[in-house]
Amino acid sequence: MRFDPPMNPTVTSTDASGFPQLARSPLAFARSAPAFTRALAAAQQQPGGELAVPANVAATMSGSASPVSTAAPWSVSVQSGQTLSGIVRDQMAARGVTISNSEAMRLAQNVARSNNINNANLIHPGQRLSLDSLSPLVTQAQAAYNASSVAQANNTLANTPANTALAGTAQVQLLLRADRNNNPVLEKTIDRAIEKGFIPAQDKQAVMNKIVQLSEQHRFAPDDFARLTLMESDGMNPKASNNRCHGIIQFCDGPDRGAASAGFGANPKAILGHSVLKQLDMVDKYFEDTGLKNFGPVGLDDLYLTVLTPSARNETRPNVALNIPGQQAAYLHVNRDTRAPITRNSILAGLHQNANERLGTDVAQRNAVQTARMSAYAAQAAVTEVH
Questions:
Q1: What is residue 268's three-state secondary structure?
Q2: pLDDT, tens digit (0-9, with 9 covering 90-100), for 169-216
Q3: 344-359 and 222-233 helices cross at what angle (nearest 10)?
């Protein structure tokens, strides 16, 4: 995987409401629990800037379990690259409360007012922020979760020890905006990775969330990312290595290559010591550095070329030989013949064939649009002379 000179993004960086387009965490693709949504909607602004939930609303959400205390002062120091809405979202998540992007934006405005910040989009590294205005919402969300857990334990888990039924922290359940059934190749690839020991079973949802988040941010199909990893690392093996390239998308050695982009230029093999979740953060950085989103919506061929040799994306003709140095897998060559060139067509056909063989055709071919495109490319490659 080669990392070429930096690109100059040309896309805008604000959303429809005028706010800056922020990098999204997996929590951005979640829907908060109904009780928390009611609390947030009913919360009233106080003179000091904090939010208070009316007593009658709070009473409808209280459970027998006591909410976690948030009486201690709650503050954070701004780090380089952070945004106020991102801080709010991450800090709420650390306390077990999942909020959407729009909720994070709204709460960021309240935090800004309570800290006498005129512009919520202007915060600075080292600045100390009080987040005490968020405490009432955390308390109510945790109370709602506790009530729900107790009801579930009483109604459906009568024969299960309470400590098992209510194990773990007070975490509001994540509900993905993207239905996992819409990403069958990704789902199957993650299940396969768990079976092979590449991903801990408890990390399945977090890995799914992160890949969906990356797909939204960089404008590619989640299933295509799965196909990419099936070729590069046997499907998200964080320890995959050929002694020159390492990890789930094969971050390669060298000052201008993927390992350097991910922050491991001095010790590329150290990537192998990190989990799939951590390596997905590196993938995010690499995709950002290579300007992937500027090619979007990104097809499977451009996604894979971003990993293999980003400069080859400049050749857009489907059957023209690409300038890709080094020995590559036979799947990537025309007719799987390593003496033949690699083209966009052959990449598409090869990645689909590889995924089909590893996962089964019935799963890997459900994306009708991508399948039709791959089939058309493959048919064209069979009758078109490669130049």
A1: helix
A2: 333 333 333 344 479 999 999 999 999 999 999 999 999 999 999 999
A3: 80
| Of 252, 277, 278, 250, residue with least CA distance to 265 | 252
CB 146 within 8 A of CB 63: yes
Rg (CA), the chain: 24
Query: Positive or negative CA dihedral for 178, 180, 185, 190?
Result: positive
Which residue do the tokens 């007070």 mark? Answer: 170
Copy the structure tokens of residue 10: 């040309």
Q: Are 378 and 349 in contact (CB under 8 A)?
A: yes
Non-local (6+) Cβ contacts of 155 within 8 A are none
CA 339/CA 7 separation, integer angstroms: 32
Which residue type occupies 27? Answer: L
Q: 295-340: per-residue pLDDT in tens?
A: 778 999 999 999 999 989 999 899 999 998 878 899 999 999 999 9
H helix count then E strand count, the chain: 15, 6
Instruction: Dump strand ranges (E) for the chain.
Output: 44-45, 51-52, 75-77, 128-130, 245-246, 251-252
